[in-house]
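Q: Could you fold this chain for me?
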Amino acid sequence: MPSRSDPFIRVPANLEAVRDLAAWAQGACSDAGVADDIALELELALVEAATNIVVHAMPGDGDVDRIGEMTCTAHFTVDVVRFTLSDDGAPAPEGTFTTAMQPADPLAETGRGMAILQLCVDELEYSRTNGRNRLQLRRRLSRK
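A: Sure. Below is the predicted structure, expressed as structure tokens.
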């Protein structure tokens, strides 16, 4: 993959902007030559993570009038794609990203997001610094 500046986006922390984030991720992966199946998994993981931020870390109900922002940087190497998602919402509960998820109740309306995240990426790394959450999603370009 060619060496170039890492793609970056800043969006409001609301559900409408999650669509913009998904389109941006598709474009960044396409520009970098990432295989379609891997790009789809990364987009799905990023949408799940961003939706969790809007629904669980931000006050309100995800409407477009809320205050808050999310940023995302994409970094591409020959072997790995890394999305770094950052937000100014409430911190994630301890263990959210380190505990293996149990299958959700098939009849439940919610509860599948973290399991989807874990299936779509190889590594999740969460940290909180200076009032901002930072979630790195890493996906190897070939799984052996």
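A (continued): The beta strands are 8-12, 69-76, 80-87, 123-129, 132-140.
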